[in-house]
Amino acid sequence: MGELRTIQTLVTVSIIAGPVSMVIGGVLLSTVALVCALVAFLKARRVADAAGIDANLVRTMRRQAVLGLAIGIVALVLNAVTLAMLMPAIIEAVQAGDLTPLVDGTAGSGVSPSDGQSGSSDAAGTGSVWG
Fold it and tell me: Fewer C-beta neighbours within 10 Å, C or N terminus of the chain?
């Protein structure tokens, strides 16, 4: 019965850590989710061969582990794509020593906040929305 608790804990971690990695944590947390789901799936497969354990319970645990695997894979792929898209802007900001484009949310857009691209320009050309 201890193995089933371990499997359930690993599945729970993988199902929760995958979506949370999309908000915070990124690639590392989605990798943890994927590894937990994989370990849970392999343990469920090993426990299924043991005698004295309800087959329906093990089948349910295995199905949950597959769901955790799917969530972990999707989260890892999306986090990796996001990292690959933002990496040039991060490297450029670190090399320039100016991290404000990353904080301002203009990373990778090619438009700096002082370009005057947003709003109307006043007489001084400051690009202020209020003129």
Answer: N
